[in-house]
Amino acid sequence: xxxxxxxxxxxxxxxxxxxxQTIKGEVTMGASYANDVYYGLADQSTxxxxxxxxxxxxxxxxxxxxxxxxxxxxxxxxxEASNDISKWNSIDVxxxxxxxxxYNSDKDWQEGAFNNASATYGWGNYNIANHYVxxxxxxxxxxxxxxxxxxxxxxxxxxxxxxxxxxxxxxNGVWSEDKKVNLAHKTNPNNLFNYYSLxxxxxxxxxxxxxKWDLKFTKYVTPLSTNDGSIVMYSVTGxxxxxxxxxxxxxxxxxxxxxxxIADINAIGYNWKTLSGWSYxxxxxxxxxxxxxxxxxxxxxxxxxxxSSTGKxxxxxxxxxxxxxxxxxxxxxxxxxxxxxxxKTITLAYNSQESKSSPLNIQIYSMNGQLVHQESYQxxxxxxxxxxxxxxxxxxxxxxxxxxxxKVESKKIVLK
Length: 416
What we know:
Layout: H1 2-18, E1 23-28, E2 35-40, E3 45-50, E4 56-59, E5 68-70, E6 77-82, E7 100-102, E8 124-127, E9 132-135, E10 138-142, E11 148-157, E12 162-171, E13 174-175, E14 179-184, E15 193-197, E16 202-204, E17 215-225, E18 231-241, E19 245-250, E20 273-276, E21 279-282, E22 286-291, E23 296-305, E24 312-319, H2 321-324, H3 326-331, E25 332-338, E26 345-352, E27 360-366, E28 371-377, E29 383-389, E30 396-404, E31 407-415
Antiparallel strand pairs: 1-24, 2-3, 2-17, 4-5, 4-15, 6-7, 6-10, 8-9, 9-11, 10-11, 11-12, 12-13, 12-14, 15-16, 17-18, 19-22, 20-21, 22-23, 23-24, 25-26, 26-29, 27-28, 27-30, 30-31
Protein name: T9SS type A sorting domain-containing protein
Keywords: Signal
InterPro entries: Secre_tail
């Protein structure tokens, strides 16, 4: 076990040493920002996709999530037309001014426009008997082209990881025949979302696998304050980040500590540039980008932004993990595991390169949040195993939380 930790730290630190040079990054979104560009910092990979290729997307990484987003960057607006699903056949776009306009969150991928409707889960309600979320809302999508589509999410079969939805297009003032679609999470298993084009009647895949991108350069809608203090929803151009990424920003120097990194997907956002006359001025802000999957940290500074004529953006970045990632990479590590041959016991593997090891505070919680076990342990060496006997606890699922100074790890365990 000790050799495994040492080898891991050696590999990671060697890797960052080899990647310390400044890299010149460049993406081009095209005239009027017509394309989205996915960018991977580790290997400078880019994938350019036509933003109009998709209309709605379904978060597919968890069967506990019901997130459905609209392609607001393409100018598609989504309305809650009715909370009475029986009115499906009587929806009339002449009433659109009375409907609620819904928006995606620009901070969380798992809060889409459809999740902001009036049902318990936005677009539907949960059935505890079969763990389905059943749709109760009728939506209408309005396209920049003037086309309309009505849509209802029939259900999300959580145990199966499958969405079922129905839609119809308005053609010459008449709704077309309903089309029913099944879309499963297992499709595109390494992606953040599954995507569907309602106008083209097909599932599409405009997103690269998550290991290949960190930043998505795109258009999106965000709330902005006006001079009179009111809030308007406005389309902007900038960078959203993968849900594996956290970002800290500084005007000078390094982040103060790990709490400076935030997971909001618009942490980089759009305001690293300012319109001055007919051109843009780029702010010299330092963006420290941490990939929580690989534990690599990059320092990125935008250099130029050419605006809507080309959509070209340039930036410099470098891998700074060796300077900023020591604590995350090598100084303190925990592993928590159970042993089938020893019922109701867990083993904590601890490895630290601190000159003086901090005490470990070990807490175990039931799934309803009750603290059921707690103890402290002072490691006597930089590497040790600690076995904890939990025979007094009932069989079931628990959360183990281990803290050493400012390092915290939590893991779900099953006691049999």
